[in-house]
Amino acid sequence: MNCLIRIRQRYAGFAQSDKKLADFLLSQPDHARHLSSQQLASEAGVSQSSVVKFAQKIGFKASRH
């Protein structure tokens, strides 16, 4: 399943910081896909740990790169 669809389906249950990140991802998916987690956090106005936790919530496994 496409991650943007997962975000839309789960949006109502997200915490405020998750919604902030979700809004950024949904509004700028082509830009966001090229960002590191640190860059994404900075541009979306959330912490890097919030980005990692959000990714896990929508079904991605954590990785260390």
TrEMBL record:
Keywords: DNA-binding. PROSITE patterns: HTH_RPIR (PS51071). Signal peptide: none annotated. Pfam families: HTH_6 (PF01418). The keyword Lyase does not apply. PANTHER family: GLUCOKINASE, HTH-TYPE TRANSCRIPTIONAL REGULATOR MURR. This is DNA-binding transcriptional regulator.
